[in-house]
Amino acid sequence: MKTQEIMQQLAAKHPGEAEYLQAVEEVLNSIEEVYNQHPEYEKAKIVERMVEPDRIYTFRVTWVDDKGEVQTNLGYRVQFNSAIGPYKGGLRFHKAVTPSMLKFLGFEQTFKNALTTLPMGGGKGGSDFDPVGKSDAEIMRFCQAFMLELWRCIGPDQDIPAGDVGVGGREIGFLNGMYQKLAQRYHTGVLTGKGMTWGGSILRPEATGFGALYFTQHVLELAGKDIKGKTVAISGFGNVAWGACTKAVELGAKVVAISGPDGVCAIPGGIDKEMIDYMLVMRSSNRNKVQDMADKFPGKCSFVAGKKAWSQKCDIALPCAFQNELSEDDAKELVKNGTWCCCEVSNMGCQPGAIHYFQAQKGFLFAPGKAVNAGGVATSGLEMTQNAEHISWTGQEVDERLHHIMASIHEQCVKFGKRADGTIDYVKGANIAGFMKVAQAMLEQGLV
Ligand code: GLU
Fold first, then answer.
1. How far apart are CA 303 and CA 193, in angstroms?
2. Is the pTM of this model over 0.70?
3. Pocket test for ligand 1, best of 94, 164, 191, 347 (most atoms within 8 A of CB)
């Protein structure tokens, strides 16, 4: 297998699908050496089969806004790979959603889910529906219209969607309500991220952020460092950033910045509980403005328009918002200001140039999203288990399992990513560990 040849063929077949091609190239670069030691993979054309989704559903979603006007959006479900279990992955509602974005996310999800140790395949879906500025009633009508099509493609043993950017507990509620109505099946296991009284798992809302901080702790610990007292900059103020802030503060770190599409809030004294709670209000307002935090707590934080979190001095950078949100220039600015660790919490949060720059700095600790943020989908997997058994675990039980899973993901990264000098290439480690598991499962199950 030669990465460049495969990439050329893929680029010709899928012109303009930049995010998808970027995600595939990163994985192929990491696995090329290991792959070429396994002629049986080459013979079964594992890579050629693995880079294409099993199927993509595309559908029209028509709904009526509060003014009575008819709106039309596009909806998608990408069922990427089911070699190790049913398709599993979130739904993203964002105006920039395209098939390329969902293909990159589905591809990443396949490896991420393999890392969790749980039997889940990879999928992703969503819509170009823009939740910004929408009322709760509009969100509900859109979710119901979206589910009118999606319900045919999903099921508890087939494909289990969850949240992602723009889809949280409120949206999952509306989606689940409509699914039950249409399917006339009242099982709890067809979506994860549900409410606590209708099959949801304790800790699922926090899980991505909590898991990311547990992973960061492992990375630091192996490098002989402690997270206590360290300064952290975080992008975003959605569900993931909220969980990350909560756990960072609990572990004794100081979150000195959060950012949004409008700019950054510098918080010199560190974010506190009241401010973290306010992130939830900001998320559900659908305004998508981080300035609201500075307006609410003028004595504690100051807003700088047009700047990213990466303009702030910090030890650890945690991108928690969107793909490619941290560029090579941002990486340079961070390093210049003394940052020595970046754990991607968003999927593919760093541009390739940023990753290369970080990895070229001696002693810099970098870990990729598919390892760092896997606690979210892992806890979805735990929610599926509870649903299948019709039971509910305590918060402590879920947290212990999440801890265990994050430790195991870290171990896999170390096993496959150890460099000659003893440091860890977490990108390589995560990609090889995830790939080997999916590749072996595909090989053993034949050409299907
Ligand atoms: N959207 C999340 C992710 O990127 C969670 C997916 C899930 O829980 O199924 O992993």
1. 32
2. yes
3. 164
